[in-house]
Amino acid sequence: MLAVATPLAARAEPIKNVVLVHGAWVDGSGWRQVHDILVSKGFHVTEVQEPETSFAADVNATRRILDLQDGPTLLVGHSYGGSIVTEAGIHPKVVGLVYVAAHAPDVGEDEGALGKRMPSVLGQTPGAIARTPDGYTYLQSSAFPTLFAPDLPRAQAAFEASSQVPAAAEVFTTPLSAAAWHTKPSWGIVAGSDQIINPDLERFYYQRAGSHTTVIEGASHSVYESHAPEVAAVIENAAQQVGSAN
User: Fold this and answer.
1) Checking DSSP bridges between strand 129-131 and strand 136-139, what pairing results, if any?
2) Which residues pair with residue 128 across a beta bridge?
């Protein structure tokens, strides 16, 4: 007898579109290992290259990429990218969110103020963040390897320090006007040794959002690079769960 696939079985396919959003001071190239792992598993993966000139510009850059997706999409954000995906995630193609050592503010909140409530090592290191005369921020080259990427090879961390994308100071203090985690399922990765965002703040965000949470002990803020297989596994699992639920 010929078996006929049921509608439920058809819906149990994992989401195949994944959009990756980087954080401040870096660019989309940091996702390369995660990208390659997911592509090898059949996912269609796109990296957003946000300009970091304003929060609105970064959200619009993400929406632009979401518009190009051909179906349901999992939206992933690292660090400041978490604020971006929280706002951009109300896009109708987004069916789930993944936060990777990321901020996840609520409507009316901004990550700068929230970070002051639970200071990170960075927040308690005077002079680590520098500012250009026209109001763009960056990490001092000496601070980047030790605070942002201590678990990456030193040469790689030094290169990332020298290739930083300065971020407009306002991106950290712009209140959100939408919070997609209220209505869409989410997953969160806590970097256990994060010095850029306090790991307890990450836990607070994910608990409040009801996120499925994974803790990667010993991981730095560069967890998406230093622990790419574990990060990719969380994204793959989220895609499977969202696909099964829709």
Assistant:
1) antiparallel
2) none
Domains held by the chain: number: 1
Residue 73: inside a domain: yes
Domain boundaries, position 218: 14-117+171-245
CA atoms of 74 and 236, how far apart (whole Å): 10
> Residue ranges of the alpha helices (H) in 54-153?
55-67, 81-88, 111-117
* Residue 27 within a domain: yes
Q: Express each pLDDT in 158-196 by its tens digit.
A: 999 999 999 999 999 999 999 999 999 999 999 999 999
* Whether 73 contacts 93, CB under 8 Å: yes
Q: Residue for token digits 């959200």?
A: 59
| Any domain includes 5 | no
Residues 62 and 87: their CA atoms lie apart, in Å, by: 10
* 18-60 pLDDT tens trace: 999 999 999 999 999 999 999 999 999 999 999 999 999 999 9
Give the residue among 241, 232, 57 at the shortest CA–CA distance from 136.
57
Q: What is the model's pTM?
A: 0.93
CATH number at residue 41: 3.40.50.1820
Cβ distance 187 to 212 under 8 Å?
Answer: yes
**Locus of tokens 């010993």:** 218
